[in-house]
Design brief:
Structural class: alpha/beta
Helix content: 55-70%
Number of strands: 11
CATH architecture of the domain at 4-170: 3-Layer(aba) Sandwich
CATH topology of the domain at 4-170: Rossmann fold
CATH class of the domain at 4-170: Alpha Beta
CATH superfamily of the domain at 4-170: P-loop containing nucleotide triphosphate hydrolases
Shape: elongated
Radius of gyration: 30 Å
Strand content: 5-15%
Amino acid sequence: MSKTINVALIGNPNTGKTSIFNLLTGLKQKVGNYPGITVEKKEGFCKLPNGDKAHVIDLPGTYSLNASSADEQLVVELLLNPQSQDYPELAVVVTDVENLKRNLLLFTQIKDLNVPTVLVINMADQIERRGISLDIDLLEKNLNTKVVLVSSRKNVGIEQLKETVANYKQLNTTGCVDLRKIDPGYFAKLEDAYRGEDLYQLWLVVSQGEPLLKINKNLLPVNEYSERNTSEIKRLQQKETIERYLFINKILKKAYNVDITKAKDWRGVLDRILTHKFWGYIVFFMIMLLMFQAIYNWSSIPMDFIDQSFSRFSEWTKNTLPAGALTDLLSEGVIPGVGGIVIFVPQIAFLFLFISILEESGYMSRIVFLMDRVMRRFGLSGKSVVPLISGTACAIPAVMASRNIENWKERLITILVTPFTTCSARLPVYLIIIALVIPDQTVLGFNVQGLTLMGLYVLGFGMAVFAAFILNKVIKNRSRTFFVVEMPGYKLPLLKNVLYTVIEKTKSFVLVAGKIILAISIVLWFLASNGYSDEFHHAEEIVRSQSQSGQLSESDIETAIASYQLRHSYIGTVGRAIEPAIRPLGYDWKIGIALISSFAAREVFVGTLATIYSVGNDEEATIKQRMSEDVNQRTGRKLFNFPTGISLLLFYAFALQCMSTIAIVKKETNGWKWPLIQLGFMSGFAYIVAMLAYQLLA
């Protein structure tokens, strides 16, 4: 019978670890969170040549086992906990051929844990271009392990890696560095106190204190020997690092050589342009401009097709299935509600496509480096740019990404301002409103709607930076941190990696949003299709009695009946009750209902309006057409006009309408104080800005 082997993929950031994970597992992946914490867990399965199966776990990128962030802490805890169901039987350490010396520090640490360890040297296709020569046999002999040369770009070495994983029991588990050489007296005393325990594992627990004590209860009195931040521990960690680099240098001196005269490299020239204090920002702005233009131009055809298809499907369902509540639920609730989100899949997919290309090419790291100059003026470091850029996908993983920021003040400010950045959940709202109120025309060759969308992204990022500036003045903390970012080599994005990212992210968005929208669509349909007042139950008689002049056609009368009934339904009653509060913003009761329901998730706004505009309407018109033709009964003007549209765009740009984000901020800040302050400020600010915009433009 075949068995399943737990394989941990470990490595420094930007070594191509995720590319190798994708090549091994393909689409047999799933993403979740580790139990009890918010760090992402990525795992997949791989068939091995001998028939066994590998359960591959892609661990967060880490520079060493001397953990300084939550991600690194997770790696250490997993490697020290044999009781964990994910405890690896084999560690695959992925390194980059250009940064082998630094990468090997982590390798020697993991090898010393006595876990079977394979060294993978990635980006083998760059060896000749960088003028590098490698002696693999010498590396294997001195590191006491199997070394696999891999090119994730050209899919070279993956089969050899699978073969090595299948035969992992043949690997030598001898360590690399003997801690006793560093300080014989200290480590002899420690080893004597805990007989039977592995010395290096014991040292990791001693040097990193309380977080690791839950793994081995036998080590509880370990604090008698040290506390994590004592000068003695720091001194010993420094000596350990020096000892490891002495070991690494001795090997690489014979096995690794770089001849820069043979290198064929444009990296220096590109870096001088892309990180230039003036031209760097111009290039970044132009790339963003082209990206948003492409999002609008490329996605228009599939979006129109999806919109019309769902409208026809809804009409077909209503005309084909037997009349009744179930048919009405499907045709007026479920189909329009889900269609209101699916229509934006092309644009969301294109957004993730461009973000993935920027990351894969190595340019995203240059953006982070470039923006560090701006961030420092507002009390943040370049590390804060990573969550802010991640926030363009979703605020939840972006808030989690702030765990890499060691400084408490910078981390808190980053958490509080990240929801201002435009996430993918805002995108459907922006797109439908922009399509309704911004003319589809070009200026100097650029689409005005695309420019508006880009402006909203810039506005969100600008507001995040401005809020950080204010918070930096309010929150007091004297400690400072320094920003270090690795500049990976430029490379052509791997099509397979880009596709995996687009499929995974888009699928995640649709499934998560779809569940919420489906549930809310059903509730909204019920509330919009039922009512308690006489006006609701006698809507037909009332409307027909008011239309006895004969000037209205039967179709117009039916539409008027549906509108009158909707206004006096349960949802209409609630909407009219809150209408006075939102009237200064230019909204009517329908928009008010959409605002309230979207506090569950922003994208529900579109699904809510899709449901509301479908109830009682059997015309073959798309949701967009119905919204564009709706009239505000109080003003007599089109409901979705320019002032109202701008007001809505600004409201959604600034409001915190995401329960999941509130929950994650509560967890990351260990209390309700900061998320409630965040919710109150963002909602209040959004209301005031939206009101001012409408009053000035109306």
